[in-house]
User: Which sequence fits this backbone?
């Protein structure tokens, strides 16, 4: 939705697609991503398309959640003028349990997306292109059938996509699957990868374990090989990063003949919170400037009970105020007294605060926050850097070790939290890490670097900046495509 708002701000008329199962689940969890209610059109439609099995029958059309959502003043301003966002929900015909499977796709999804493109053409609003997330490579087939270009959207950093793009070489050259123990977090003699044009050698430990140690026939590996193939066929690749932080990665894409464009970081809009959620902001108002360590591990990573206890003891021993997010799907607030060390809540009352959800952008922007103990997911990484807050890096999965490497060893805006041999948390490492980030010389240097990057981000996303200009180029190119006479 962040990209949709930016594109609408350019002047695009945007059709944003949900599929029915995801839409229903997000709505049930009150997690639907939509522009502010006051910006939505009032007219609702109940049209629906249902497609199941190998043969799909078109009824009246896709569900339209809102006729037109004007982009509010929070979106960036471009010369193209403000457009509108239309939300569509398409039937996916998932069987029970399909939504919990990684990367599920059905014939109905392909057919209903194609039908929507056809219907929009018949209505006089022919889509100029389709922007597809990298994790939906199946949309390439739809765009080829519809005769429109597919544009790839990679929501993480350029280096992460570059590693996926080169997976085929790693397997064909026999480098992967890697020998060794998947449970060992760090090797004394890591395998150095030297095969990517334009990049210096880097450790294979930065590649997710699910890829490093799996055979090429593994379903997970096969999916990412498909993603890499789709990148080659896309008209261009939009990457939610900035050229200024990853120049070598973007040069490497150029060496591969891939048109890649930094368009980020796309700014997360601040949402309206309820009283329970703003309580943490009131608590932060009582804390000294740059004194609080904010702790959150994103929406996927889960800590074991043992790790929660180790983290708790380490935070308490650090002596620093802490704001700690423990998601309800991990441990409920009612269960906390049984999970946390005995007496922890009583001893840290006033010194620390535990909540199940935080308005993260607002928290990181608060002057009391001096550091972010994070899993280093890319969204959390860029939100912290946008606020000029250094990170204490505790990567867990996916590309998070790569993000940690960049933060600590390349950009200098973070410190890596030491972990156990299997990558777990240890109380003494937590204590030392928090003290180093908030009170040590290395932490002061990391904060200075984080604030330097904050200014770079502000510049690149404003008019005249590189990321801003790349979005403007997309608009100009698509307008030129629209003006071409149809064959």
Assistant:
């Amino acid at each position: 939705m962040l990209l949709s708002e930016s594109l609408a701000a350019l002047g695009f008329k945007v059709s944003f697609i949900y599929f029915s199962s995801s839409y229903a689940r997000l709505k049930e969890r009150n997690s639907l991503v939509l522009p502010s209610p006051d910006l939505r059109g009032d007219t609702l439609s109940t049209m629906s398309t249902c497609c199941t099995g190998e043969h799909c029958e078109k009824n009246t059309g896709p569900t339209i959640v809102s006729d037109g959502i004007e982009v509010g003043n929070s979106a960036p301003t471009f010369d193209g003028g403000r457009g509108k966002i239309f939300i569509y929900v398409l039937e996916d015909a998932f069987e029970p349990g399909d939504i919990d499977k990684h990367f599920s796709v059905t014939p109905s999804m392909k057919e209903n997306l194609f039908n929507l493109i056809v219907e929009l053409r018949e209505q006089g609003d022919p889509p100029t292109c389709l922007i597809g997330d990298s994790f939906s490579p199946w949309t390439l087939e739809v765009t080829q059938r519809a005769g429109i270009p597919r544009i790839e959207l990679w929501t993480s950093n350029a280096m992460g996509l570059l590693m996926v793009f080169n997976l085929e070489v790693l397997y064909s050259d026999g480098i992967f699957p890697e020998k060794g123990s998947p449970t060992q977090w760090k090797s004394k003699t890591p395998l150095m990868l030297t095969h990517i044009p334009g990049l210096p050698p880097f450790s294979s430990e930065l590649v997710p374990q699910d890829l490093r140690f799996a055979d090429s026939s593994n379903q997970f590996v096969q999916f990412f090989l498909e993603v890499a193939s789709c990148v080659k066929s896309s008209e261009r690749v939009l990457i939610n990063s900035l050229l200024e932080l990853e120049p070598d990665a973007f040069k490497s894409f150029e060496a591969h003949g891939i048109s890649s464009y930094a368009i980020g970081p796309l700014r997360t809009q601040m949402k309206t919170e309820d009283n329970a959620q703003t309580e943490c902001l009131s608590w932060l108002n009582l804390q000294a400037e740059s004194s609080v360590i904010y702790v959150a591990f994103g929406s996927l990573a889960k800590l074991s009970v043992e790790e929660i206890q180790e983290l708790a003891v380490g935070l308490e021993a650090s002596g620093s105020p802490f704001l700690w997010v423990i998601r309800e799907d991990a441990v409920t607030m009612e269960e906390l007294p049984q999970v946390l060390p005995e007496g922890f809540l009583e001893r840290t009352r006033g010194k620390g605060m535990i909540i199940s959800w935080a308005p993260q952008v607002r928290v990181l922007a608060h002057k009391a926050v001096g550091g972010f103990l994070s899993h280093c997911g890319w969204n959390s990484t860029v939100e912290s850097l946008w606020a000029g807050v250094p990170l204490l890096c505790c990567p867990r999965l996916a590309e998070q070790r790569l993000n940690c490497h960049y933060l600590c060893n390349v950009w200098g805006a973070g410190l890596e939290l030491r972990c156990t041999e299997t990558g777990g948390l240890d109380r003494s490492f937590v204590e030392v890490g928090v003290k180093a980030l908030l009170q040590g010389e290395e932490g002061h240097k990391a904060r200075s670097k984080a604030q330097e990057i904050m200014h770079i981000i502000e510049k690149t996303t404003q008019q005249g900046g590189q990321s801003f200009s790349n979005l403007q180029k997309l608009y100009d190119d698509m307008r030129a495509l629209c003006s071409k006479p149809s064959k």
In short: The longest strand covers residues 63-70. Confidence is low (pLDDT under 50) at residues 36-61, 63-81.
